[in-house]
Design goal:
Blueprint: E1 5-8, H1 10-20, E2 31-43, E3 46-58, H2 64-75, E4 81-83, E5 101-105, E6 109-110, H3 116-129, H4 137-146, E7 153-158, E8 164-170, E9 189-198, E10 201-205, H5 207-211, H6 216-223, E11 235-238, E12 241-250
Parallel strand pairs: 4-5, 8-12
Antiparallel strand pairs: 1-12, 2-3, 5-9, 6-7, 7-8, 9-12, 10-11
Helix pairs in contact: 1-2
């Protein structure tokens, strides 16, 4: 089996693989194998061992594809796992409940209302206007902390069914470049855990909470001064929805 991995969240893998393996997940660092070759020469009750032993040492290869394969194998006989790739059509997604893990072909789109660089520009302007950031070296450190681009989350969703599926991808878990993000919209296989189900209105993404590292006081100041800037406003959908935590995306 060959995987072309697009996204892999190792933190989620570590958490759910331990549960799927009944708490017995072990990361092997080294294997030692000993073999004995030779014979015994005996005179009455005296035994003399002739031969030698050899030790073969090696490390288990532990990378994202091998971890994904091990994790999927551990899920096969678990009642909380639904594999739409091996069974029924994906139309039964509405039947999934909280805490279930599923695998399915699921194209994803980054929400069109989200522009990472425009959000950054507007947010920096608002921080300056509010007197929360200036031009000193300390302010530069604050900017790097608030806008840690490796750790930002991207709002993705699929609305091909009656139930909206949505999630937030961690940018540092993506294994493709930014100019390849359109690959997410292809018929990729998604391995994910159901986080929460919603009946009616749902917030898909809140830039002040999901995009930047702001403390609660700073966030309240920013919320009162968003005004008409749609890029900084939460993205809402009025529909039944399932929020998922995406562990892996691959073809």
């Amino acid at each position: 089996m060959f995987y072309n991995l697009i996204y892999f969240n190792e933190n989620l893998y570590d958490t759910y693989y331990a549960f799927a393996s009944a708490g017995q997940a072990v990361e092997f660092k080294e294997i030692e194998s000993q073999t004995d070759k030779g014979a015994q020469l005996g005179f009455d009750s005296t035994q003399i061992g002739l031969g030698k032993s050899s030790v073969i040492k090696g490390e288990i290869i532990s990378n994202a594809p091998s971890k994904l394969i091990s994790f999927e194998r551990s899920l096969v006989h678990n009642d909380y796992f639904v594999d739409f790739e091996a069974g029924d059509a994906f139309r039964e997604i509405e039947d999934l409940s909280r805490r279930m893990i599923f695998r399915a072909t699921l194209p994803l789109k980054i929400h069109e209302a989200f522009d990472m660089y425009e959000v950054t520009r507007l947010m920096k302007s608002k921080l300056l206007d509010a007197g929360l950031m200036g031009s000193t070296s300390d302010d530069a450190d604050l900017f790097n902390m608030v806008f840690d681009f490796d750790k930002v989350k991207l709002p993705v969703y699929n609305n091909d069914m009656d139930t909206l599926i949505f999630s937030k991808l961690h940018r540092d878990c993506l294994l493709i470049e930014e100019n390849e993000f359109d690959e997410l919209e292809e018929d990729n296989i998604v391995l994910a855990k159901v986080k929460k189900t919603y009946d009616g209105a749902v917030t898909l993404f809140d830039p002040l909470k999901d995009f930047m590292n702001l403390d609660s006081n700073t966030r309240k100041i920013m919320e009162s001064d968003i005004g008409s800037h749609k890029q900084l406003q939460p993205i809402y959908h009025d529909t039944n929805a399932i929020e998922v935590e995406i562990i892996a995306i691959y073809t």
